[in-house]
């Protein structure tokens, strides 16, 4: 899912990561409209209104589990191995990241083009279906609207 994070002019997080889109291009697929989020941004810019208080935001976005932290580390190692030309190591670490965090959309979706898979091909749709069946788990605020 596209993830949006609001950072104010002082470098502070004004709104934690959450599902949002800049247009309705994926509305039919995701059911998420862009306009409610854009309205929140307008209220923030014009009036300084943040849609969620800092304390509520900390409670709303849970910490990653130990497996999820390890999965993200494996993902970074895999990306580094790929840049270094070690495709075997990259594939092993991408696979381990997916095994440790099978519901982590960030890891699984981001790995698709890095392992030569079509990011909008059948693997993507299979993965999306699995993720939907699990209730669309996500470390962030849900979509606005």
Kindly describe this structure.
The structure is a single chain. This protein has 145 residues and is mainly alpha-helical. It folds into 2 domains: 3-60, no CATH class; 66-133. Helix content is 54%, strand content 8%. The chain is built from 7 helices and 2 strands. It has helices at residues 27-30, 35-47, 54-60, 66-83, 87-100, 105-114, 122-133, and strands spanning 3-7, 13-19. A two-stranded antiparallel ribbon has the order 1-2. Strand 1 and strand 2 (13-19) form a beta hairpin. It is globular.
For the structure shown, list the relevant keywords.
54% helix, globular, 2 domains, 2 strands, mainly alpha
Radius of gyration from CA coordinates? 17 Å
Number of domains: 2
Mean of residue pLDDT values:
88
Structural class: mainly alpha
- What does the main sheet amount to? 2 strands, antiparallel
What's the short story on this structure?
Helices cover 54% and strands 8% of the residues.
Write the layout of secondary structure elements.
Elements: E1 3-7, E2 13-19, H1 27-30, H2 35-47, H3 54-60, H4 66-83, H5 87-100, H6 105-114, H7 122-133
Antiparallel strand pairs: 1-2
Helix pairs in contact: 4-5, 6-7
């Amino acid at each position: 899912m596209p993830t949006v994070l609001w950072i104010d002019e002082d470098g502070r997080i004004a709104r934690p990561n959450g599902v949002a889109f800049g247009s309705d291009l994926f509305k039919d697929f995701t059911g998420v409209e862009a306009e409610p989020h854009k309205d929140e941004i307008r209220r923030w810019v014009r009036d300084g209104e943040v849609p969620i208080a800092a304390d509520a935001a900390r409670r709303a976005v849970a910490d990653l589990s130990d497996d999820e932290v390890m999965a993200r580390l494996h993902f970074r190692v895999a990306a580094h191995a790929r840049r270094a030309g070690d495709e075997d190591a990259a594939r092993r670490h991408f696979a381990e990241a997916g095994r440790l965090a099978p519901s982590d959309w960030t890891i699984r979706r981001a790995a698709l083009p890095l392992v030569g898979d079509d990011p909008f091909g059948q693997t993507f749709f299979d993965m999306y279906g699995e993720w939907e069946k699990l209730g669309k788990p996500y470390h962030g605020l849900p979509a606005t609207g």
